[in-house]
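Pair request: fold both.
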Amino acid sequence: MSDDAVSRETPPAPDAATGVFSHALPVATRFADLLASDGVVRGLIGPREVPRLWERHLLNCALLAGAIPQGADVCDIGSGAGLPGLVLALAREDLSVTLVEPLLRRSTFLEDAVAALGLENVEVVRARAEGLHGRREFSIVTSRAVAPLDRLLGWSMPLVRQGGELVAMKGSSAHEEIAAAEKALRRHGGGSVRVEEYGAGVVDSPTIVVRVRATRPSQLGLAGTTRDDRSRTRATRSRRRKPR
């Protein structure tokens, strides 16, 4: 079957989406529409992904919200189509989310999506993750399908504030990736490492997460994971806002 023969009509939200997204379901549905239309046209997702947008992408990413502390500042590296970062932002208004994406085509889509959805808790940064090393730090750094853990640590851990965590979406090989990344974990100041599962009994394929605690002192002299510690930093940001 050719891509042209694949339906690009946004599939209806499954029953599980009501419980996962709660009051944010209308915004999540609008984002699904954007992915199925502009996302395909701009090459952010393939046409064959449209029929499984909810199960494979939106729900999968929204379940990650259970791993994020209240009021955390989150950096999503290699954000691409906004998975998981944009989904976290619309599902959790208490979070402050920075989407880091180096490609202009993708970062422009993210900016347009943030404006169209009226999200006020999102910042889009066009850059590589390593371009922010020594300049920005966050309580939580997320990623999805970016790289094996040993390489991901080098890009992510310099962005994690001491006491914060790398929270990476992984698959069934999570434990094997941790074993292969033993040297990288020591090199990049990784402390406790845990594998967690979210969504069992809610979705067919639960979200598997690798959490790595950052133990190295912060390069920027920042500490803590609450919004109060970051109020002055966020006051200098400019964000595109539209009413919902």
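--- second member of the pair ---
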Amino acid sequence: MQQRCAVLDDYQGVAATSADWAALAGEVDVVTFAEHLGTEDELAAALADFDIVVTLRERVPFPASLLARLPRLRLLVASGMRNSVIDFAAAEAHGVTVCGTESSPTPPFELTWALLLGLARGLVPENAALRAGGPWQSTLGADLPGQRLGLLGLGKIGSRVARIGLAFGMDVVAWSQNLTPQRRRRGRRGARGLQAGAAARERLRLGAPGRSGTAPGDCSGRPSCPS
């Protein structure tokens, strides 16, 4: 019997061209869902007849209650290697194999700087005003050298954001569970807690996974980088 594969949240309609599905031809029927399925009942009804589900990052939770309602499910694939919304123990109990795919840190840090530069130079209001026939150059841009950039999270993405900030001549302040004295010597100053890191900034980027060490109110007394 031909297996069925559901690809969730393909709202851009790119799933069919972003991967080579040819090897599955004749063996797996691949169905994409452009609309987000927001409730457990919607997910259970839509995915009841699928053996494989491909989900985008952490947009769709797969708790034990949902997995119990998907008796045909045998393979759950998530983009990225980290996922906090899948109940792995429940998946194992129901005989569901969970896999992850490689992901690139490039788009997030490039988009971070696109947003920061757009904010500093007022690109959005200036573009809107120009297209609407309004006043030209109605805002005054801000220079980045000397400004303080606060980073909450200094992993693969945060480190790249920090390097660009240093290249712009910014004062980079970071809080991270992974911040070491060696990384401080590369030009990043350490903040002694999540709240301190958020307070000591003029531009702030939050890029940390939701877990106990980064949950709100759970960072007091957790200095990442001793002096």
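Observation on the second member. The chain has a mean pLDDT of 83.
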